[in-house]
From TrEMBL:
Domain 2Fe-2S ferredoxin-type: 3-80
Domain of life: Bacteria
Molecular-function annotations in GO: 2 iron, 2 sulfur cluster binding; metal ion binding; oxidoreductase activity, acting on the aldehyde or oxo group of donors
Pfam families xref list: Fer2, Fer2_2
Protein's organism: Henriciella barbarensis
Keywords per UniProt: 2Fe-2S, Iron, Iron-sulfur, Metal-binding, Oxidoreductase
InterPro entries: 2Fe-2S-bd, 2Fe-2S-bd_dom_sf, 2Fe-2S_ferredoxin-like_sf, 2Fe-2S_ferredoxin-type, 2Fe2S_fd_BS, Aldehyde_Oxdr_Iron-Sulfur, Beta-grasp_dom_sf
Organism lineage string: Bacteria, Pseudomonadati, Pseudomonadota, Alphaproteobacteria, Hyphomonadales
CDD domains, per database record: fer2
Name of the protein in its database record: (2Fe-2S)-binding protein
Length: 161
């Protein structure tokens, strides 16, 4: 059953023709729209590499059908920076070495933004570890990731956007 859907991604409407209703948001982002910043790790909800925001809440795009998201606001890692001005979470990841190979990093960053929104700027280091536990890092950059998320929280509290 072919169908056409419209997805609002990073503030832009994208019309997508689908052969059937089964493609995930992850596959539509990467293979149909060309937004390859969102990564595919496990493709089964276990690694967090594919994390994006849907109406401000983090979701695993590999577990989400694209057809279910018409009318939603989808944010991917490509939608964070304003020109050369990085999002404070991106800046903090760079300054705290929150990555090595970088494959998990877009998902880590999107998950961190969701977590900092959920915790309203009051996340403890333990809450960050727990809240980021769905995002795996093969390189084991967890110490830098935790430092980056805590620092980003402080930057945002001081008004960084
Ligand atoms: Fe989606 Fe691993 S690719 S959770
Ligand atoms: Fe390599 Fe996380 S930085 S998987």
């Amino acid at each position: 059953m072919a169908l056409r859907i419209s997805l609002n991604i990073n503030g832009t409407e994208h019309g997508v023709d689908l052969e059937d209703p089964r493609p995930t948001l992850l596959d539509v982002l990467r293979e149909r729209i060309g937004l390859t910043g969102t990564k595919k790790g496990c493709d089964r909800g276990q690694c967090g590499a594919c994390t994006v925001l849907v109406d401000g809440r983090r979701v695993n795009s590999c577990l989400t059908l694209a057809v279910s998201l018409e009318g939603a606001k989808i944010t991917t890692v490509e939608g964070l920076a304003n020109g050369d001005a990085l999002h404070p979470v991106q800046t903090a990841f760079i300054e705290h070495d929150g990555f090595q190979c970088g494959y998990c990093t877009p998902g880590q960053i999107m998950s961190a933004i969701g977590l900092l929104s959920e915790t309203e700027g009051k996340a403890s280091a333990e809450a960050v570890r727990e809240g980021m536990s769905g995002n795996l890092c093969r390189c084991g950059a967890y110490a830098g990731i935790q430092d980056a998320v805590m620092d980003a929280q402080a930057r945002i509290a001081k008004g960084a956007k």
